[in-house]
Fold:
Amino acid sequence: MRTTVGIVGGGPAGLLLARLLHRAGIDSVVLESRDRTYVERRQRAGILEQGTADVLRAAGAGARMDREGLRHDGIELRFERRRHRIDFPALTGGRAVTVYAQTEVCKDLIALQLAEGGPLLFEAEALDIDAERARVRFRHGGVESVLECEYVVGCDGSWGVARRTVPAGVSRVFERGYPFAWLGVLADVPPSHDELVYARHARGFALLSMRSPAVSRLYLQVPEGTDAEDWADDAIWTELERRFATDDGWRLARGTITQKSVTPMRSFVQEPMRHQRLFLAGDAAHIVPPTGAKGLNLAVGDVVTFARALVSERETGSPALLNSYSADCLRRVWQAERFSYDMTTLLHRAPDATAFEDRLQVARLERIGSSRAAATDLAEGYTGFPW
Ligand code: PHB
Structure:
């Protein structure tokens, strides 16, 4: 089997890359180790920066997002039983975000790829990658084959084979763990607020998000290693109520919890993002903690950068943009790492936090609440850094 670009991993990064290449007349093959249902149900943050929504539209994949996605002009920060709204358009010259779940982005891209694009193989497990010769050995339907490519792009996440293909002597990993995790629930209840609410509380962080006007997505900071089954539904609602409580009578509506899971938190970057003819994109190269919802947006930035670089090589004969792929992506990646780290440490309570650190956290939040400059910094980060 031969193609121009072998794409390992059919999550949002791999699927969007296949779409961008298809629109540019460049053929590709996508190998995804899981089945279609798994990819379409995997819950991840669903906040699209304006640049991400624009890319999906330009790729002809924005129709349902424009119908069903919710434009959000701000978020609420909640601390000390008070509420403070961050107004994105007012602070950023008109920018906003779109709430449209990652599951829906994947469904739209899969449908387009199967209808119009090149091969997308589910349950096709990449076994190893030859980065020098751009070959991927994989198993599909019990048969082993080799995919011969000009370039391979690893979009297979931080546990995938692509990242591990880069020899340790060549790459460097920058990593930080956090001593807490998120317990996330999906609930059949209209969201209790029309924008996302990020709450800092002495008992820990809580987040109110949504999947649609009828479905809420809620999170609680829990200790690292927590088992979701240890939390009864009632206990979850009671704890959410405590952490979101305000002095102005705001109420959290309860509903049936339909899904429960725990997300670990870490920050991670592997440099460089290219080795020979293998390029890393999305979670294969970097992980952010979910506070601030940057993961999908970073993956989109990577694959747009790769697609542009390859198109430029085809058109001009110059590999300059392919050669600067890693450096070009990493500038943006580190800005998102910084933003996600700041949001995480601003809002979570570390188990060993001192009273001094507690007061500093509230002071940081009050600064954002009272200074246009501080609020602008948050709004620019949240709505996205330019590609
Ligand atoms: C989500 O809707 O799942 C979500 C939203 C914002 C975040 C993280 C997760 O910062």
In short: The pocket of P-hydroxybenzoic acid is lined by residues 45-47, 196, 209, 217, 290-293 (CB under 6 Å). The two ends are 34 Å apart (CA to CA). The longest strand covers residues 172-188.
